[in-house]
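Protein record
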Amino acid sequence: MEENDQPAEVRLPVGMAAIACIVCFAFVFGATKSAVVRLGVWWVELLIYALIPIAVSFVILYRSHWHLEMARVARTSRLILLSCLIFCSEFLFFALLITAMCIFVGLGRGHG
């Protein structure tokens, strides 16, 4: 095994946290969309739609046996940052995917 290769026990919690983040965001968005829109406060939307999936990712990472050798504060801080990174990367990926789909659909209609 090379130095850069990580065993499956290390990669698995990050993948599980990423999948849980996507599923949680979809569930929270679908379940609370009408209630949150009625509030009309943008920061409440941000709190609900971002913090709940980030918290779910963090709990999965924290409960795993990942980096138990680190001090508690350092490990917690690192896992919070990783949870935020997971959420932001998934959000960026889906935003780019939706943008690309809109562009291709627009181009398809223009040539049809």
Summary: The chain has one domain: 8-87.
